[in-house]
Amino acid sequence: MGSKLDLLGRYVDVNSALKYIEERRHEDGGYCFVSVLNDTNVNDTYYAVKTYELLGLEVPEKEKTIEFLEKAIQPQTAVVAIAMALESLAILGAKDIAKGHLDIVYTKYNPVEGKFAVGLGGSEEFGTATPLEATYWVVKAFRAIGHDFSKEERDVIRAFVMKFRKGNGYGVKQATTTMTYQALYTLYALGYRPPKSPHFRNCELCGDWGGFTEVPYSLPPYLEPTFYATRGLELQGERPTCPRRHIWFIRQLQNSNGGFRRSLELGISNFQNTYRALAVVDSMSRFV
Length: 288
Prior knowledge:
- GO terms for molecular function: catalytic activity.
- Keywords: Repeat.
- It comes from Thermococcus gorgonarius.
- This is Prenyltransferase alpha-alpha toroid domain-containing protein.
- By secondary structure, the protein is mostly helical.
- It has a domain at about 75-195.
- The protein has helices at about 1-10, 15-20, 40-55, 60-70, 80-90, 95-100, 100-110, 130-145, 150-160, 175-190, 200, 225-235, 245-250, 270-285, and strands at about 110, 115, 165, 170.
- The longest helix has 15 residues, at about 130-145.
- The relative contact order is 0.12.
């Protein structure tokens, strides 16, 4: 228990971050980043579960959280949220429960039938999910619960992902860090080995800044591209150039309530930012 907390605690106030998460757990087993609201949701619950996993801690009253997540998997639920629920269930040791809801996923996401997230719905990054984002989350969830795509499905998904190729990366109109990582992760997870992309390194800021940007040679850095670029470098077996500076960047993002915001400017804490900040520090700490 203490080792990961102690390690991350060298760089950020991990105990206050954990308290921030714990204080926002509700009676139904779900979480809501605005503690005074009872509007628990899959997104916040997913990132709470991921934070506990990252820190090597048990989720409090996890049976309640399992029940909450299973109830959230409904035909009207956005496919990204369903994928988050499935992955969370796997982390909580409930893979069999997750696999029992695969039929709902296939009503919304069935590549062989040309369905790349019917209705799309809620997104992690873009307001409304892009089909590539939905693909990433479904592939990630299926991998977590141990459900394999058929060869036909894998080939169709690969061809679909390659439509987003833009130069050295992936995106809709231009390559972005988020979509480049999502595309490469998807290809790797399906067993393909795409060429390494220089995109992540071209978005790395050292010197006075730290962090990463969405597009190369731009400012300012934000947390989400920093998270995805960090994951992208790991995926490609590469090291960051200035890990200490990236940790410095993350340190500046912690708010007084223990949570993290997305930029050096003022901003509110949320669970997504908090998990991603801790995950970046965890990764960068291996190189300092």
